[in-house]
Amino acid sequence: MIDLHCHMLPGIDDGATDLETSLAMARIAAADGIEVTACTPHIYPGLYENATENIAAAVAAFRQSVAEADIPLQLTFGADIQIVPELLIGLRRGTHPTLHGSRYFLFEPPHHTVPVRFAETLFDTIAAGYTPIITHPERLTWLDDAHYGWFLDAADDGAWIQLTAGALTGEFGRRAQYWSERMLDDGVVHILATDSHDPHHRPPILSAGRDAAAQWVGAEEAERLVEDRPRAVLDDQPPSSVLPPPAQRGEAPAQGRSKDRRGWLSRLFSGS
Q: Which of 3, 49, 81, 219 has its CA 20 to 30 A from that of 213?
C-alpha cells in the first residue's frame, strides 16, 4: 500500500514531535503493509511556515534514520497545503511541493470555517495544470447537506478526494464515518490515506480503512484506493486514466446531486 498523507517528519508541524516518535510511526506503517509513505507536513502561513526546501531536507535526514533502523519503508514528500491566496503562486514557484514532484498536491480546506473561494481556488489550480487532492472532507465540521454538493462538483471538475482511513473505521466518530460512507457510495473517492500524526492516537494504519471501504465499493476498488491510484500519483499519470468507476454517479437527484440518505441519517442520529 501507499500512504500519500502522513505527518511523520519529526518536529516540523503538529505531527511527530521527535525522531523516536517518527521511527515508531515508520515501524507501524511498515508492519501494516505500507511500502511508501509521503511525508506531508502542514503549510499554513502564520502557523507552519514550511516550504519545499526545508521539507526536502527533513525527509533526507529522516530517510537516513529509517535506513539505519532497518525499517522497510520508502519515503517521499509533499505538503498538506492550506487554502490561502498564495497557494497557486507557491505551486508555480516551487515553494509549495506537489506529491513526489507530480501534478498532484494535497489541498486542505479549513476544518472549522467555510472557505470563501473554495470553488474558485480549485478551478485556478486545475486550469494551471495541477490536480488538487482535497484532504479529509469527511472530517470538516462545516460539512452538511448544503455544502456536500461542493465536493461532488469538485470531483466532476477534476479534483480528487482523499478520505482518512480512520474515519471509515469510526476512529473520528460517527459523523465522519457517515460522510465517508456517503462519499464512497456516491463514487467520488479517489484515495485513502492515514493522515497519521502519532503512533498512539492517530497511527499510520491504512489496512483497516481499506477493509472498511471494501464493504461499500468491493475489494478491487478498495485496493485501487490504497495502491493503484496512489501509485498513479507517484508516476504522475493523467487523472483520467485512474478515475473511480462511475457506477453510481449521475443517478442522483439534481438538488445536491446525492441519493436519498434518509435511512442513513436515521441510523446516524438514532444510535443504531
A: 81
Assigned C-alpha cell, 254: 439534481
Rounded Cα distance, 95 and 81, in Å:
11
Tens of pLDDT, residues 94-148: 999 999 999 999 999 999 999 988 999 999 999 999 999 999 999 999 999 999 9
CA distances from residue 260 to 132, 186, 257 in whole angstroms, order as listed:
28, 11, 10
- Please list, in sequence order, all residues whose beta carbon lies within 8 angstroms of the beta carbon of residue 141, skipping any fewer than 6 positions away: 111, 112
| Domain membership flag for residue 38 | no
Q: How far apart are CA 191 and CA 155, in angstroms?
A: 12
The number of folded domains in the chain is 1
Whether 156 is covered by a domain: the verdict is yes
Q: 12 lies in a domain? A: no
CATH of the domain at 222: 3.20.20.140
DSSP letter, residue 243: P
Cell of 265: 441519517
Please give the residue range of the domain that contains residue 182.
Answer: 78-270
What are the pLDDT digits (tens) for 21-41? 999 999 999 999 999 999 999
Q: Which pLDDT belongs to residue 87?
A: 94
User: Which residues in the chain belong to E strands, given as ranges?
Assistant: 2-6, 36-39, 42-43, 74-77, 80-82, 104-108, 131-135, 160-164, 191-193
CA–CA separation, 242 vs 229, rounded Å?
6
> Measured between alpha carbons, how far is 4 from 161 in angstroms, rounded to an integer?
12
Give a yes or no: residue 218 inside a domain.
yes
* 35/74 Cα distance (integer angstroms): 6
> Cα-Cα-Cα-Cα dihedral of 205, 264, 136, 252, to 10°?
130
| CA separation for the pair 188, 130 (Å, rounded) | 18
